[in-house]
Amino acid sequence: MEAVFNCGAYRLDLARPQVMGVLNLTHDSFSDGGELLAAAGIDADALLRRAESMVSAGASLLDLGAESTRPGARPVSEEEEVDRIGAALTLLRPRIDVALSVDSSSPAVFATAARERADMLNDVRALQTQGALAAARDTGLPVCLMHMQGQPGTMQDDPRYDDVITEVRSFLAERVATCVAGGLSRERLLIDPGFGFGKRLEHNLSLLAGLRQLSELGLPVLVGMSRKRMLGEVTGRPAKERVAAGVAAAVLAAERGAWIVRTHDVAATVDALALLESMRSLEGHAG
Ligand code: 7PJ
User: Fold this and answer.
1) In the predicted model, what is the mean pLDDT of residues 146-164?
2) Which end of the chain, N or C, is surrounded by fewer C-beta atoms within 10 Å?
């Protein structure tokens, strides 16, 4: 029987890794800040072109984010976030035929996302913001719950763990239980260890190596390592030169059971995962 994940208007094949393209509607993202914004808001031409090229490169989801979580980033007001996400969905929804995800922690943004026919919510705060769990539940959409230690502005100051895998897994298990108790069914949930969110290199590498232990929670796993500092620490390269390391990270994660890989570099990631999948099909291996 084919296993599918119901993602808004889309049904995604759980037996094959999926690629999620990142569309940043922020001025100060470290990886591609400001490229999709104009003085008056979103740059519609640039955004549509980027989205279309990610879809033709094989992305099955696109993730729209308007809040920068980078330490030191200018805070974006909820109103600004609602406006940018609303405008982006109004532009993309009729023109882009893949699942559209919204990267936010805000109840008002969740409501806008559902109204503008987004397919998924992606919350780096795992629905811990006041009112977020109920607002997400009411959208009927699936939600990715991510682990973060601390808060974006200060999370990299001094991250500490006794056992990072056990702590991240327990946090996610607790959030899943709370969400299910709050009316979000398990079928709507995904989990993410949150690479780079309150983690040193050694923590990120332990999580990557031990990713299988997160799949044991029985929920689809999403990972995002694309262009992140952990790749810079390993290669010595600046953000835009981390594509090869990011692709390697995507393959290592998918081999360890990750289902969705969130990336800025869709074409290269899709090709690399195609190799993994062709090898697996020869082995008669699934998952
Ligand atoms: C992640 C995210 C991630 C999920 C960002 C960046 C920073 N959402 N949003 N997982 N990272 N679920 O793209 O480098 O790792 S923003």
Assistant:
1) 92
2) N
In the structure, what pLDDT confidence band is assigned to residue 34 with cuts at 50, 70 and 90? confident
The pLDDT of 150-176, averaged and rounded, is 94
Give one DSSP letter per residue of the chain, joined into a string.
Answer: ---EEEETTEEEETTS-EEEEEEE--S--TTTTTTTEETTEE-HHHHHHHHHHHHHTT-SEEEEE-S--STTPPP--HHHHHHHHHHHHHHHTTT--SEEEEE---HHHHHHHHHTT--EEEETTTT-STTHHHHHHHHT--EEEE--SS-TTTTTSS---SSHHHHHHHHHHHHHHHHHHTT--GGGEEEE--TTSS--HHHHHHHHHTTHHHHTTSS-BEEE-TT-HHHHHHH---GGG-HHHHHHHHHHHHHTT--EEEES-HHHHHHHHHHHHHHHHHHT---
Mean of the per-residue pLDDT values of the chain: 94
| Region of residue 111 (left: phi > 0; alpha: psi -120 to 50; beta: else) | alpha
Question: Measuring from atom 16 of ligand 1, which residue has the nearest CA?
Answer: 69
Q: Decide: 69 in ligand 1 pocket, CB within 6 A.
A: yes
Using an 8 Å Cβ cutoff, are 17 and 105 in contact?
no
Q: Residue 217 contacts by C-beta under 8 Å, 6 or more apart in sequence?
A: 169, 172, 173, 176, 191
Q: Clarify whether 240 is annotated catalytic.
A: no
Q: What ligand 1 atom has the least distance to the C-alpha of 69?
A: 16
Q: What is the C-alpha separation between 26 and 8, in angstroms, rounded?
A: 25
Q: Is the CB of 155 under 6 A from ligand 1?
A: no
Tokens of 255: 């081999």
Does 144 contact ligand 1 (Cβ within 6 A)? Answer: yes
Ranges of each domain in the chain: 17-286
Domain 17-286 CATH superfamily: Dihydropteroate synthase-like (3.20.20.20)
